[in-house]
Amino acid sequence: MSEKLKIKLSIANRVYPLTIEANQEEGLRKAAKNIETLIKQFEQSYSVRDKQDVLAMCALQFASQEEQKSIDKENVNEHVEEKLNALNDLLHSYLVS
């Protein structure tokens, strides 16, 4: 049975108590740190007064990165499939000859 941990993460000057699996701690702490870094970047780059707006911009940034990774992966998979089909056709032509 996995060990449960109680941790507190601070995001945008709010503390969030969480009960998590021990193996999730590092990822959650890194994610919170990345969010805090992005918040600071947005606050410095834009005159945003409302934390809600900054958090929405952060959410959009992270979500768009994930979507782009998914699109890129799909394109790579299609390219690999095309190459494998071409190789399969080439091998088949040699075997039939």
From TrEMBL:
Keywords, A to Z? Cell cycle, Cell division
The record's annotation in Pfam families points to: ZapA
Alphabetized SUPFAM superfamilies for the sequence: Cell division protein ZapA-like
The processes (GO biological process) annotated in the record are: cell division
- What protein name is recorded for this chain? Cell division protein ZapA
Identify the species of origin. Answer: Flavivirga jejuensis
